[in-house]
Amino acid sequence: MTVLLTPRPTPVEKRHFKFTVVKEFLDLERLLGDGRCAIKTSGDYLKPDLQPFSGKDGHKRALKALINNNGGKESCRLVYITRHAESNHNVKSMKLGKKESFAAADHFDKEKDPSLSSSGVDQAKQLGARIANSQASEFGLPNQVHCSPLWRCVQTAGYVGANYHAPQPLSALNVKLSDKWREWKGPGQLHVSDGRSTKTILNGRIRMLNGTVGAVQMKVDFEENFTDIDEAFHDPETFINVDIRLEHALAELFEGDANCRHIVTHGRTSQSLLRVLGFQRKRREANLEDYRIWDFENAGTIVLLIRRQLRNDQCEQVKRDNKLQQEELQYINREYEQDINDGFESIQQCAAKISDKRDTWMTKLDMLQEEMQENKSVAWRHELLQKALNGTFWHGEFIVSYGHGFN
């Protein structure tokens, strides 16, 4: 039996603002239908429901009227939300198998803050051009980008922004990097690919990127207290924790005069963002909701009109969040156990049947042995991978329990 001891998650805190989608602009519920919905790089997600007024500047006048009916420009922002384009770690995961990679390979990859793949660069450029020619662009294009500091997101922001502003270039595309937009970290689930580069390395990479994106250059600002060395995400999160940090991040969209913003973030973070905006999850067994109704494909993008209002039930919200956090923690740990057991079971089956697969995983085992010299917390992965390759792993061997250390 292999037991992963996970620390308690970050305590919940008061939530000062409530953020909702103005459905008259684009109604996500209309797009959902009966099942899970994948937000793609094209389709209805860049086609607002709002009908323009007749005459000159009809789109912008219609949007202004809708904003005035929803609290005014201090309360509303037009927001594009994008998941990063395809990265190298996405490609590697597909080659190894997603569940197999999740169980073992993601945690000792040599590329700690992966770049976009060549296909991902093309995706980002094409998305920028698609946004520039979309119906959404008639209502406004972003001149401020709020971005995860992980390199795949920074690259996506640069290539997309340079291309949607190519017809009428800005002097600079303002990009603010914040750890608040990073990927979700569940107990025990921080992938190597979700760690960021140092601020020094990021600045160097950004200078090089500005030489390749085109006529529009990025002007990058780091959030206050952004450390050189990655000190974020040492405490595990439940979904409620992600909601709270995203609400802090959304509040920053309402600072300054730019009424149209662009968020570039990650897959699970995007799912949490839609939950924050009011698209609740379906119920599961044990009265727990389904977290992942919405999926974002790589470079998947949607445009929404977001309204901010003060909460009048902050204390009651904390009580509800505390209760939901306990339910979520049980659900997350149960799902994590299932995913890890499934992954190593699949590795064992493939290694027994396909020699090339076995050779690949033997190489990964050696890499993991090297990683253990610096990072003892991956020892349980080495142990389970070794058992899988020896044919002695059994499903259910891995379980999650509470502790005080980090694994």
From TrEMBL:
It comes from the Eukaryota. Pfam families: His_Phos_1. InterPro entries: His_Pase_superF_clade-1, His_PPase_superfam, PGM_Phosphatase. Gene3D superfamilies: Phosphoglycerate mutase-like. GO terms for cellular component: cytosol. SMART domains: PGAM. GO terms for molecular function: phosphatase activity. This is Histidine phosphatase superfamily. It comes from Stachybotrys elegans.
